[in-house]
Amino acid sequence: MKEFGAAIIGCGSIFTKHAEAIATLKGVKLLAVVDTDANKAAEAAREYGCQAFTDYNEILNRQDIDVVHLCTPHYLHAEMAIDLLNAGKHVLTEKPIAMNLPSAWRMLEAAERNKGQLGVVFQNRYNEPSVRMKETIESGILGSLICMKGIVTWNRNDAYYTNSGWRGKWETEGGGVLINQTIHTLDLLQWFGGDIASVQGSVTTDVLSDVIEVEDTAHAVIVFRNNVRALFYGTNAYLVNSPVELELVFEQGTLLLRRNCLYLFKEGKETLLFEPFTTITNSKSYWGTGHNRLIEDFYEHVKSDRDFWINGTEGIKALQLVMDIYNSSSTR
Predict the structure, then answer these.
(1) Model confidence pLDDT, tens digit, residues 57-106
(2) Which domains can be identified in the chain, with CATH numbers?
């Protein structure tokens, strides 16, 4: 079987999740890392036994590199992905797919034109509670879905933004809590609910207005075409990173995700359906445990020449919802 060569662009906080996942895969070898910070690139290359570069153009013509992971700031996703796809590479990018919809559509066009895979990292779809929620909706075992809510209360302090040259700015991050932190929860809500009929929302900067130009808090009411209503609230203005809360109300019961445990409330009784049994290491707890499964699944699709299911088209759905909330807020 052909060995697939991989590269990672961006050696920041999420880099390790990708590098460690690649290290566990049979038939896949990390050949190169890229970062504009030469020291970061060199340190990552030493740790994972590969080459280091400071310019991603140096890997474009490498015939031994088949898949490139984008772990870069938001504003670089589209340009890099298009160049890589045009060079015949498959691309797996961290969320969001791009900073805006026109850039995302150009990425899709490049993937289609070059017959390359374009995957987007929404790893929470692989978390066991998310999978069970989706299966419950599709099976109808609890009747029809009626409504949902998603709540994200996290903390991002001044240093998170001031120590970065791109976060907290419209031009380089594309937004704040919506497009960066809570986009995972919005992705789950739209994955569960299906096609969206209307969105009404607002964004504010409640705590960090002297540090960032984007929002730190947002809320929205999302109505789906099947008449399911979802309420969403997200903020970076809390003082701790609380676990994400999700609630799905069905005709015959309710599923609740609390503190990473999934419960069923039915006929006046609450039953624990899932409890995490592994400790998350070398990462932040709120990233969840889905990165390894998603990355492995992406390579399985590439190896078998099957379209990865969280592709560009899927990745755009969450971005569209983010943009709709921004537009609703600006137009009141």
Answers:
(1) 999 999 999 999 999 999 999 999 999 999 999 999 999 999 999 999 99
(2) 4-121 (3.40.50.720), 124-286 (3.30.360.10)
This prediction's pTM: 0.95
Mapping DSSP onto H, E and C, the string for the chain reads CCCEEEEEECCCCCHHHHHHHHHCCCCEEEEEEECCCHHHHHHHHHHHCCEEECCHHHHCCCCCCCEEEECCCHHHHHHHHHHHHHCCCEEEEECCCCCCHHHHHHHHHHHHHHCCCEEEECHHHHCHHHHHHHHHHHHCCCCCEEEEEEEEECECCHHHHHCCCCCCCHHHHCCCCCCCCCHHHHHHHHHHHCCEEEEEEEEECCCCCCCCCCCCEEEEEEEECCCCEEEEEEECECCCCCCCEEEEEECCEEEEEECCEEEEEECCEEEEEECCCCCCCCCCHHHCCCHHHHHHHHHHHHHCCCCCCCEHHHHHHHHHHHHHHHHHHHHC
